[in-house]
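Intended use. Records like the one below are meant for learning the mapping from a protein sequence to its folded structure. Do not use them to infer anything beyond what is encoded.
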Amino acid sequence: MTGSHRFSVLAVALIAAGALAGCSSNSGPDPASPSTGAASATASPSVSAPAAAIPAHVPGTYANGDWVVRLAADGTWEEDLRGQVNAYGGTYTVDGDKVLLRDRRGSSESATLQGDELRLPSITLTRR
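Structure written out for the chain above:
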């Protein structure tokens, strides 16, 4: 099978699967799932709004040399890296001591907050 033929077969399979999913015989909402009403129409995977309130002890500026991360109380974050102000940013959520940073392009990074330290996989930042 040639590369373009495999791509065509894959595209047709994906289109068919989407069409079949749209032809579901279920005419009403699933009684096992909660009703979301208008919220489902406005919900999106974008990084524009955090999901839950941010605990008061989390927001602040965390740094290690020229690597600076600012966590705002509204659930947004900005990062300065190698002298470039706001090089990255997005939203974050907190679950216990776990902080999930989502950037503007949809990527995410998990960190752990321990006291005044924000521990990312590649570096530990300390609250200023």
